[in-house]
Amino acid sequence: MEKANQTSPIMGFILLGLSAHPRLEKMFFVLILLMYLVILLGNGVLILVTTLDSRLHTPMYFFLGNLSFLDICYTTASVPLTLDGFLTRQETISFSACAVQMFLSFAMAGTECVLLSMMAFDRYVAICNPLRYPVVMSKSAYVPMAAGSWAIGGAASVVHTSLTMQLPFCGDNIINHFTCEILAVLKLACADISINVISMGVTNVIFLGVPVLFISFSYVFIVATILRIPSAEGRKKAFSTCSAHLTVVIIFYGTLFFMYGKPKSKDPLGADKQDLSDKLIPLFYGVVTPMLNPIIYSLRNKDVKAAVSNLMAQKACQPVM
Q1: CA–CA distances in Å: residue 117 to residues 207, 220, 266
Q2: How far apart are the C-alpha atoms of 254 and 274, rounded to whole Å?
Q3: What is the C-alpha separation between 114 and 188, in angstroms, rounded?
Q4: Angle at which helices 289-299 and 59-87 pack, to 10 degrees?
Q5: Directed axis angle between helix 302-317 and helix 22-52, to 10°?
Q6: 10 Å Cβ neighbour count for 160?
Q7: CB count, 10 Å around CB of 319?
Q8: By three-state DSSP, how is residue 90 classified?
């Protein structure tokens, strides 16, 4: 086997995408292109208003700006290649480009897991300990929290990308997926992937189990505090400040549990047996979730809607040179 690996190493991969379903390719091309444009516009506007409007210079909107930037990075790392794959019969990607895409995708997913838990902590302090909120969530606290989220996600991605790309790949170089998704790439390795599966399981605990428990406990205290508020209007106002975050958490983690809840080892029957849903679920996470985030936060947040309106009014009032 070692000799075969040395004489015919894989220099790149072929991404099948939906080539087995040609009737779906044009429909998904238009659909995903429109979604990608909405992602760029929606998240770009959120970044713009949270940066320019001084009233939004708070921890919650700082985290929201990070989340929007993260969603743009994640989709830009994968969507253009996916769109090109719909137009090309057999989309090819080099070994190094596959590694970069795998790193970015995993890093962004891991960062978002941690970032959402930081946002839950922010909501916990704001509702359960409002008097201490300015002290606990000072700039010297929330900036390192956001930076730490990026660092943890990046570090985990370096580990998994390195473990995957140092595996020997021989023979079949066809990835039955839209992108270099890590589980799809592992199926092509002609070596034992036990270490990869174990490390994936540990990562699942760190980035899925721990944040979900942290967020769940935070919302237990948040709900208990809200229920103690005497007036119905006060309870409604308090819940509205965290309803958008809770909605995003449910969509994000619900999809991730479907994708990575149970690590998969190499399929000896080959990638052709992979079900269509195994492609569409990651696609849902990679495109639909980043598209919904700015929509959810805009529709459920009066401050964001007011900031967008003010920004549009200022642009409309500017004199034409």
Answers
A1: 10, 14, 32
A2: 21
A3: 30
A4: 140
A5: 80
A6: 20
A7: 4
A8: coil
Which phi and psi angles does 13 have, rounded to 5°? -130, 160
Is the pLDDT confidence value at 17 over 80? no
Phi-psi region of 266 (alpha: psi -120 to 50; beta: other; left: phi over 0): beta
Residues 290-317 have a mean pLDDT of 75
Residue 89 in 3-state DSSP?
coil
d(CA 162, CA 65): 30
Distance, in Å, from the CA atom of 81 to the CA atom of 62, rounded to the nearest integer, reads 30
- Tokens 């930081």 appear where? 118
Query: Of the candidates 46, 115, 82, 113, which has an alpha carbon nearest to the alpha carbon of residue 292?
Result: 46
Q: Residue 268 has what pLDDT?
A: 47
Q: Is the pLDDT of residue 109 over 60?
A: yes
pTM, to two decimals? 0.83
193: tokens are: 């992937």
d(CA 213, CA 162): 29
Whole-angstrom distance, CA of residue 117 vs CA of residue 243:
14
Q: pLDDT for 250-301, tens place per residue?
A: 888 877 666 655 555 455 444 444 456 666 777 777 788 889 888 888 766 7
Please tell me the least confidently modeled range out of 65-74, 190-199, 264-273. Answer: 264-273
Mean predicted lDDT score pLDDT of the chain: 81
d(CA 64, CA 129): 21
C-alpha–C-alpha distance, residues 161 and 159, integer Å = 6
Residue type, 97: A
Is residue 92 within 8 Å of residue 14, measured between CB atoms? yes
> Are the beta carbons of 253 and 219 closer than 8 angstroms?
no
User: DSSP states of 19-68 as a string?
Assistant: TT-HHHHHHHHHHHHHHHHHHHHHHHHHHHHHHH-GGG-SHHHHHHHHHH
Q: Name the token pair of 24.
A: 């779906």
